[in-house]
């Protein structure tokens, strides 16, 4: 259980630091990605981008 929590935490940290670079590629602006501002902070819920990145990861995993 601790291994999964650590894996999820590291993945979130890596993706959040790579977010500006991923936005330049167009991820985070797909239909299905939600961006909203609340109390002066910007929140992003990238549902469609997450599905797309998951599919790419599965395809790479199948090829290897």
Q: Which value, in Å, is the CA radius of gyration?
A: 14 Å
- Uncertain stretches of 5 or more adjacent residues: none
- Look at the helices and sheets and give the structural class: alpha+beta
Largest sheet, order of strands side by side?
Answer: 1-2
Query: How much helix, percentage-wise, in residues?
Result: 55-70%
Question: Percent of residues in beta strands?
Answer: 15-25%
SS field, number of helical segments: 3
**How many E-type strands?**
2
Largest sheet: 2 strands, antiparallel
Strand-and-helix sequence, N→C?
A: HHEEH
Overall average pLDDT: 84
Distance between the termini: 27 Å
Q: What best-fitting shape do the alpha-carbon axes yield?
A: globular
Topology:
Elements (H helix, E strand, L loop, with lengths): L1 H16 L1 H6 L8 E6 L2 E6 H17 L1
Antiparallel strand pairs: 1-2
